[in-house]
Amino acid sequence: MLQLSEIWVYPVKSLGGIQMQESKVTDRGLELDRRWLLVDTDGRFLSQREYPELALFKPEIAGDFLRITHRVLLESIDIPLLPVFSDAASKIEVTVWEDTIDAYEVSQTITDWFTKLLGFSTRLVYMPDESERKLDPDYSITGDEITSFSDAYPFLIIGQSSLDDLNGRLAVQISMNRFRPNFVFTNGEAFEEDTWREFKIGDVSFIGVKPCDRCVMTTVDQEKGVVSGKDPLKTLAKYRNFGNKVLFGQNLIGLGLGTVSVGDEIRVLSHNKK
What we know:
nine-stranded mixed sheet; 2 domains; four-stranded antiparallel sheet; M1 Pyruvate Kinase, Domain 3
């Protein structure tokens, strides 16, 4: 039986993740997933691709707050999970890749905190419910699907067997956190998620729309916040290179709302055509 073994959310894009026992599936991803974003002075998103030290910021849920702690400097700040914005001046346009998105700066205090710890000017912004970022129409099902501040899709799934296969080829084994999935499953074959089209996690339906092509961010050691070398990207490129894209994991769209829990059965209903 295919079984959901891990659930992860990444409240602030490109910062650390939070492992969950269960999570609500919303219309734009898992609840809290990538609803916050750090941007530069031009409103462009920050990423571990350019700033690997972002991995050193660890999030956790602390009551009604999202607590962010710098794991080396041991400084923390609390951010309301349900922010209220009454000042229209705090609304700004931000960009993630080619998408322009309406967002709100969370607060000057939080902006100052991140700017101090990172050593350059940055702002933390939040995506409100009324801000709808549409998916790429080439991979949309209805044309109305939306996502958060994710790179492109609301969910990502990877099989534990896929990581095990990769680790069997590496000199130094790595953790799943290099690939930042929302869902990890066990008891499957390596890379079988590549072929999934429609499937269910518990009672919630998903569609596999596009294998995830990988970049240098996979080379960032998530514990140290530094680039650790050319692997795993170099090794993946030797056997997971399709059309000059290195693939690992499957991007998903949700077909409904609900709750998923660790231990849920995964039932594959159809497969993508090869």
